[in-house]
Amino acid sequence: MGRVTARRMPAWLALAAAAGIGVMTAVQARINGQLGVRLEDGFVAALVSFGSGLVVLIALSGLLPSGRAGFGRLIAGVRTRGIPWWMLAGGAAGALTVATQGLAVGIIGVSLFTVGVVAGQTVSGLLLDRAGFGPAGVVAVTVPRLVGGALALIAVSIALAGDGLAGIPIWMALLPVLAGAGIAWQQATNGRLRQRVGTPLIATLVNFTGGTLLLALATVVHVAVTGAPAPFPADPWLYVGGVIGVVYIAVGAVVVQHTGVLLLGLGTVVGQLVTSLVLDVVWPAPAGPGLMQALAMVVVALVSVVVAAVPWKRWRRP
User: Fold this and answer.
1) CA-to-CA distance for 268 and 250, rounded, in angstroms?
2) Burial 260-273 (b: 16+ CB within 10 A, else e)
3) Does the pTM exceed 0.85?
4) What angle (nearest 5°) sits at the alpha carbon of residue 257, between those of residues 205 and 307?
5) Which of 274, 211, 241 is nearest to 36 (CA)?
6) Taking residues 247-271, what's their average pLDDT?
7) What is the pLDDT of residues 93-107, one digit of tens each?
8) Residue 79 pLDDT more than 50?
9) Which of the two ends of the chain, N or C, has the fewest CB atoms closer than 10 A to its terminal CB?
10) Taking the chain, what is the end-to-end CA distance rounded to the nearest angstrom?
11) What is d(CA 180, CA 47) in angstroms, rounded to the nearest whole number?
12) Least confident piece of the model among 30-39, 162-171, 207-216
């Protein structure tokens, strides 16, 4: 089955879109984290977020001609095996990310969650680009990209220095790292699926369908073991996380073709870190790095994106 090609996006616009994804991700994380705190159950909060996004996507896919056409290409691709099964598995990473938000962000804050995601995304993005897994194909490992990735890891080390993890269970620090690795893989997978179906809408629908099914299964098991969650809060804003996820996953499926996995991840990280810093200042969580640590982390991450984006082709390795 042939690929549907797209016009080249200007570099500045692709990076701005990547940063916008980061802004939305940070806002979504704080909303889902707060819903998890109010429900006293991160799994139920994650299921609510993903399930609401799935409802929106089903409606859009049925109403829009591009959605119906893309769904037809999806069915045809699966039937003829032009779309392999692993292209349908991006929802697993999305489910892990949203579950981590619901379980941890309300306790550790958005900044500490984000730096864990940075570590996973940076390492995974470099490996995926080098392996040619993303829709852009093999992206050469250059000195600027390596330095940018190293600086992103330095930003992580700044955030974790001192008393940032004091009193926090170790799994709350490890889950965001796993989620970050999954996000890089999800972006690459959704980008390739988008090429096959011709629209990010259906690629996002596949993501949310798989993620909702996995979260539903996890929630049933969790509730059976721990009991029912607290009553659902009446505040409407606590339920918009799914819609935000629909938007940023669809944007990511488009942008990754123009940036590669690593650069998309770094641009996203900048948006996440800046927004996380603002959110943690105006809406602090019980735990997390101090203001000066978070500020230093943001500055280093910004430098990492600038370095990675500079087209120093003379440094390119064969």
Assistant:
1) 14
2) bbbbbbbbbbbbbb
3) no
4) 125
5) 241
6) 78
7) 888 888 887 777 777
8) yes
9) C
10) 31
11) 19
12) 162-171
- The span from the CA of 38 to the CA of 29, in Å, is 14
Question: Which has the higher per-residue pLDDT, 2 or 203?
Answer: 203
Residue pLDDT, tens place only, 119-168: 777 778 778 877 777 666 676 767 777 887 788 778 777 766 666 556 67
DSSP 18-42: HHHHHHHHHHHHHHHHHHHHHHT-H
Residue type, 43: F
Q: What is the pLDDT of residues 40-78, one digit of tens each?
A: 888 899 899 889 989 988 998 888 898 899 999 999 999
Decide if 99 contacts 43 (C-beta within 8 A).
Answer: yes
Q: Check pLDDT > 90 for residue 248.
A: no
DSSP the chain: ------PPPPHHHHHHHHHHHHHHHHHHHHHHHHHHHHHT-HHHHHHHHHHHHHHHHHHHHHHSHHHHHHHHHHHHHHHHTSS-GGGG-HHHHHHHHHHHIIIIIHHHHHHHHHHHHHHHHHHHHHHHHHHT-STT------HHHHHHHHHHHHHHHHHHSTTTTTT--HHHHHHHHHHHHHHHHHHHHHHHHHHHHS-HHHHHHHHHHHHHHHHHHHHHHHHHHH---PPPP--GGGG-HHHHHHHHHHHHHHHHHHH-HHHHHHHHHHHHHHHHHHHHHHS--SS---HHHHHHHHHHHHHHHHHHHS--GGG---
| Number of residues in the chain | 318
Residue 188: predicted pLDDT? 82
Please state, in angstroms and as integers, the Cα–Cα distance from residue 19 to each residue in 45, 76, 168, 188, 272, following that order: 25, 34, 29, 17, 7
